[in-house]
Amino acid sequence: MKRKWLWSTVFASLLIVLGFMLPQQRVQAAEKTYTIGTDVTFAPFEFADKNNKYVGIDIDLMNAIAKTEGFKVDIKPLGFNAAVQALEAGQIDGVIAGMSITKERQEKFSMSDPYYKSGVVMAVAKGAKIQSLKDLRGKKVAVKTGTASADYANSVKAKYGFSTVTFDDSNNVYDNVKTGNAQACFEDKPVMQYAIATSYKNDLELAKNFKMAMANNYGIAVKQSEAATLTKKINAGIKKLKANGQYDKIVRKYLGNGSEASQAKKTAAMQETDRSFMGLLKSNWGTLMSGLGETLWLTIVGIVCATIVGILIGLLGVVPNKFLQGVSTTFIYIFRGLPMMVLALFIYSGVPSLIDQKVPAFIAGVITLTLNEGAYTAAFVKGGISAVDGGQMEAARSLGLPWGKSMRRVILPQGVKIMIPSFVNQFIITLKDTSILSVLGLLELTQTGKIIIARNMEGFKIWAMVALIYLVIITLLTWLSNWVQKKVNA
């Protein structure tokens, strides 16, 4: 009887536990979170408003689809190229960034049903004589990397005899025309209208004799492994939102009735009222400091890891072993020779394809800094030890000290004095190199600047702020380097 009672109690307990677990599992399944990448400079589809909250047609639409279909989204502003590469590597689940549905993209990704129809327009300097494609012969045209407008420009440039210059950010495209370095630019109509309405109304205008070209549909790209689940949910969500009128409400929120005047009125409320240098600094101070915090955190973690790796590799270069010396030389040669951006993209986008595992952007950034800065650290560690007079080692060995103890007690204390200023200088270099990691979508200081500019198009003022912040931090570190050098040599 006791045994039956025991087993009955165990069985009942299991049923109770399963009863609690199954509903939780259903809730967790219903609330699955998908990581969706997006652009940072494609207003009004994605941009940060005056409160530095990420908004736009794409952002609102993706959140509405998720709510309608019962899943969660983590939207990451990576930049268009970085987002596409991250999707290819399986780092994220999808991309919503005003992405035109093309045959090539349909072969590579699972593309959703169309959610917005657009087309390419041409913008020129206000009052310019250039107003059509025929006027562009022998001229330069600015375009943005990876966009449908860039594809269009490249498809007709031979016919009309113009050349193209390519930029990663819309702001640089427009500024190139504003300054006269390029005579025209191509961009999707709502994006170009937004730029003119907010910041370039006195500088740019739509070409009067150019009709909208290359009509294209925007879609949401999803990795192929999620085609049966996420793509299906997105398509169902788009259909429901269009049917209940919520889709039209989202579009009108940013575009009004589609005219330039209506769009200018809609976007005015999302802009800073004070566009002076101090006004912009005040309204964006918190965001800039958040970006600086990420930059400093990346720098500290990166320099600690790079120092550890650099010291180990540097010491291998001076041990009396040809193989280990070869390992040290090879490491330094490879990672000093690779451009840091190439290394970062390889680790973030290439490695996950090889190991079939996601590599978080922060981890990829730290690994990049560790390998690149570690190679430079190893070089000056190796050089600092080699700079110590060779007679010191001979004297220590003649006193009966083994090689390891001679290195630790005699050589390293002298070599460290030579190396300390280089360590501080390497910290400064690492701080500056973190700006390259914006290509991974990390919200460090440079990426933060891009996000702010995507909203207000005040490139000169915002980049001046970013430059001043870097300059202040680097000046403080330079003073520290000089102070440390004086103390060491005292």
Q: How many individual helices? A: 18
**Count of discrete structural domains:** 3
Radius of gyration: 28 Å
CATH class of the largest domain: Mainly Alpha
Question: What features would you describe in this structure?
Answer:
This protein is α/β, with parallel strands linked by helices and 490 residues long. It has three domains: 26-116 and 217-268, Periplasmic binding protein-like II (D-Maltodextrin-Binding Protein, domain 2, 3-Layer(aba) Sandwich), CATH 3.40.190; 117-216, Periplasmic binding protein-like II (D-Maltodextrin-Binding Protein, domain 2); 277-489, MetI-like fold (Orthogonal Bundle). The protein is built from 18 helices and twelve strands. A hairpin with a 5-residue loop joins strand 2 and strand 3. The chain starts with a helix and ends with a helix. Mean pLDDT is 83; it is low at 1-30.
Task: Describe this protein with a few key phrases.
MetI-like fold; D-Maltodextrin-Binding Protein, domain 2; disordered N terminus; 63% helix; two-stranded antiparallel ribbon; alpha/beta; ten-stranded mixed beta sheet; 490 residues
Helix/strand layout:
Elements: H1 2-30, E1 33-38, E2 47-48, E3 54-55, H2 57-69, E4 72-77, H3 80-88, E5 94-100, H4 103-108, E6 110-111, E7 116-125, E8 140-144, H5 148-160, E9 163-167, H6 170-178, E10 184-188, H7 189-198, E11 204-206, E12 213-222, H8 227-243, H9 246-255, H10 260-268, H11 277-316, H12 322-337, H13 340-355, H14 361-387, H15 390-398, H16 403-433, H17 445-456, H18 459-489
Parallel strand pairs: 1-4, 1-5, 8-9, 8-10
Antiparallel strand pairs: 2-3, 5-12, 6-12, 7-10, 7-11, 7-12
